[in-house]
Amino acid sequence: MRNILFVFLLLFANFLLAQESSPKISLSYTESTIKDVLKNIEDSTDYKFYYVDEWLGDQKVSGSYQDADLTEVLEDLFQSTILNFYVLDNEKVILTQNNIIYDELPTGFFIKSNQEQIQVTEERDVGGSQNPVFVADERLPQQRNIQTVRIGKETLDGQKRRYTLSGYVRNAKTGNPIPDLSLIIRNRKIGTVTDENGFYEISVPLGENLFETKALGIESQQKRVLIYNDGQLDFNLNESIEQLDEVVVEADKTKNVEEEITGSTTIESEETKDIPMVLGERNILSVATQLPGITNAGEGASGINVRGGKTDQNLFLLDEGVVYNPTHFFGIFQALNPFATKGVDIYKGNVPAEYGGRLSSVFDITTIDGNTEKFSGEASIGPVTGNLMLEIPIVKDKSSLVVGGRGAYSDWILRSLDEESLSNSSASFYDVVANYTHKINENNQIKATGYYSDDSFSITSDSLFGYNNRMLSVNWNHKFNEKNSGALAVSNSKYAFDIGFDGQANNDFLLGYSVEETEAKLKFKYVMNDTHTFDYGVAAKLYNVNPGFIRPTGSESIISPFEVPEDRALEGAIYLSDNITLGDKVGLSAGIRYSYYTALGPSTQRIYADGQPRNQATLIGSSEFDDNETVETYGGPEFRVSGRYSFTPDFSIKAGFNSMYQYIHTLSNTTTVSPIDTWKLSDSNIRPQRSNQFSLGLFKNFKDDLYELSIEGYYKTAEDVLDFKTGAQLLLNENIEQEVLQGEGQAYGVEFLLRKNSGKLNGWLGYTYSRSLIKFASDFAEERINGGEFFPSNYDKPHDVSLVANYKFTTRYSASLNFSYQTGRPVTYPIGQYNFNNSEYVFYSNRNEFRIPDYYRLDIGINIEGNHRIKKFAHSFWNISVYNVLGRANPYSVFFVSEGGEVKAFKSSIFAIPIPSITYNFKF
């Protein structure tokens, strides 16, 4: 009896001890983070949790419990995560990612192999039983640099022998799917192949699986994948000309260090959505101006200056077709639909040999490829614009159509301003873009793109200004065999503007201008071996320029019709480049492009006396040229050389040399770019521009490519740079060569960039010190500027600082900041007055001797994403931003007016107050 009583007391004591050591939990929480819930449990019980902060994330959870066990609470809390837990000594709770901590193993778990290593048998029946996953800490030497990825998490019941892994394989640079790529699991001797959309699905065993990708022209990537459950794993792979063994490649994280060419960068359209811009519009080109070496003349200026170059020295391509004016509203908005735009590759240093025709840079913009599986799209509604883009499958898995349209409804802003002169003003724009992609077969694919944009504005009641872009292109990509591929691109582009005047008097008129070009390019790529990859091809372009016309409008107009004769020219090129890889440390890109140019008739070329300035007094005759007759020819070799030496895998030095020809020029006598600036072809009196650029830079990544640091310097010289004489008349002028000068240019600078690529806080800090100088020297005073010495160009801004930052509070909420500072651009001031023949005159300083006030601006934004449920019609995104938070009245221009014998200075600004905006985006 006493023994029975003793046993009863012992069991009762153990029961009480268990009850004491396992307290019940009562708590309630709504939209709290997991970390906050764990802290709440710690505060109300004796439990102590051990974990890594980054594991918990920012996911919000809700729940309510009354006298619940710890296990019940934690299982609910971690249900949608990859976290598991283990309770030690009834007080300590240890969290783990993916795997479970076991304090005992099932019978027969260990099996001895011939190598005396511990392995996990895959053939045993584990139906429903615990099945621990063990991975050896000591990996083989060839596995030590391989990234480890964990899929799913262990559970105590329902485990299977095999799980399903699926995902997509994409080109890291273009985002396009990579079809027919092999995924091999080396340690299991199984594999699969991606379909034409880059999708794969494979059944893989529980535990460790060593994945390797294999495809021609694509870098091989390896991953050590630990499978705990069903899941998804995507691959982003770089193009390659060599087969890499045991090298981990993650997207483009090391591109800045490994790429051979200098001065290149890529901006993805999706990256720009978190950067605050004026009136909430995404703008790749405005983001580009926040990078070192790229700037513009200020608000209201539609051009971009790259490394001290003129605005006309940049080539803008959209799917291989030229866009002459890629902006709306004088540069405030980009004229390219951000939803239909995939991204832009910018070359400002060493330009690949396939590109030519401009001295400073190439902006190679591509549109997205449409969804071939299901109907989808994206739309936005903002304070002044609305945007819609649709992706429409035509033939499943083969072809699709992308259609995008955007329009402005901004007249209400001008009418609401407290300015009588603007009460009857109007301003609007729209643009449309469409592309059709079709995969004919494994070796042939076609993409056709059409684009049109139109702007119209009227600041006064009697004048209406308008300008438009049109572009059509067709690209056919063909794969001959495993080593050879090619592409044919045909495009037509046109830019035009017009001015309509309807006044009180009988002088109503329509004035217009247009430039059109048609181009064909044939490009080839030959992968010779792991060391050499050759790119070669030919290109030909036909220009048709209508320099301007004026016509009377209305029967009573006294305006006489007039039209400047058309200019025509043919530009062609042949190029060859070799990308050379000499081991892991040395990479070279060497190319040559021979460009040639022929000005064509019909044309009248004026002849001037040798050694004399060009004016009416020195005009001695003219030459007539018939249709398609050669007027003048120019041309020469252009060298493109760049090299990289890697001290370590994350630290390299690069150097490059670049020479370019440019045969078409803009004519403008305003400080900033205007939509009514005209383009002029080279002829017998206006020579093509030429430039040479040297660059040298250091590139370093830190903390597994989390941070990028680069310092790059450049020095550029230019010949036959075009500028205008004081008081020049450029529009509707047949003798335009009498109004312009050609001189020398030089630009140099140092660019600094520190960038953080991921994490809660990401963005970049950029600083540029640069100078841009020009010189016009002559034996004749009327052709000299500033005594024939070098002086600052209109776009010389020595100091340029940009800070772009985004902080993610959660996966749905983030805040962004954009700060810019620039030295004020040069300006010519009146510095005195004098009397001559009883008249008062103003005496001006040397050209560009002074500067307008410095420019600085701060923008802030709040970004709110909708919930991330997969099964919902549309995913939303709100952007709330304030442009120019400080209300800085940054001067757009400074001008002078003579009133009552005094010269008064005036400053005009585009945005002199903070501009708030809210934009709603949704994707379906």
Structural summary, described in words:
By secondary structure, the chain is mainly beta. It has three domains: 17-97, Phage tail protein beta-alpha-beta fold; 128-251, Carboxypeptidase-like, regulatory domain (Immunoglobulin-like, Sandwich); 264-923, Beta Barrel (Maltoporin, Chain A), CATH 2.40.170.20. It is built from seven helices and 59 strands. It has a 22-stranded antiparallel beta barrel. Strand 57 (891-899) and strand 58 (902-909) form a beta hairpin. The chain is globular. The model is unreliable at 4-20, 112-130, 138-142 and 241-251 (pLDDT under 50).
Q: What is the count of β-strands?
A: 59
Low-confidence stretches: 4-20, 112-130, 138-142, 241-251
CATH topology of the largest domain: Maltoporin, Chain A
CATH level 1 class label of the largest domain: Mainly Beta
CATH superfamily of the largest domain: TonB-dependent receptor, beta-barrel domain
Can you count the helices?
A: 7
CA-atom Rg in angstroms: 33 Å
Backbone structural class: mainly beta
Total count of domains = 3
Whole-number mean pLDDT = 83
Spatial separation of the terminal alpha carbons: 76 Å
CATH architecture annotation name of the largest domain: Beta Barrel
Q: Helicity range of the residues?
A: under 10%
- Using the alpha-carbon principal axes, give the shape: globular
Draw up the topology in text.
Blueprint: H1 2-21, E1 25-33, H2 34-44, E2 48-50, H3 53-56, E3 60-68, H4 70-77, E4 83-88, E5 92-97, E6 111-112, E7 118-119, E8 147-151, E9 162-171, E10 182-185, E11 190-193, E12 199-205, E13 207-214, E14 222-227, E15 231-232, E16 235-237, H5 255-258, E17 264-268, H6 284-288, E18 294-295, E19 305-306, E20 314-318, E21 321-322, E22 327-328, E23 333-334, E24 341-347, E25 361-367, E26 376-381, E27 385-395, E28 399-408, H7 411-416, E29 426-441, E30 444-458, E31 463-479, E32 484-501, E33 509-527, E34 532-552, E35 562-563, E36 567-582, E37 586-600, E38 603-608, E39 619-625, E40 630-648, E41 651-662, E42 664-667, E43 678-681, E44 689-702, E45 707-724, E46 740-756, E47 761-775, E48 791-792, E49 799-808, E50 813-822, E51 826-827, E52 830-836, E53 839-844, E54 850-851, E55 855-865, E56 875-883, E57 891-899, E58 902-909, E59 915-923
Parallel strand pairs: 2-5, 8-14, 9-15, 9-16, 20-25
Antiparallel strand pairs: 1-3, 4-5, 6-7, 9-12, 10-11, 10-13, 13-14, 17-24, 18-19, 20-21, 22-23, 24-25, 26-27, 26-59, 27-28, 28-29, 29-30, 30-31, 31-32, 32-33, 33-34, 34-35, 34-36, 36-37, 37-40, 38-39, 40-41, 41-44, 42-43, 44-45, 45-46, 46-47, 47-48, 47-49, 49-50, 50-55, 51-54, 52-53, 55-56, 56-59, ...
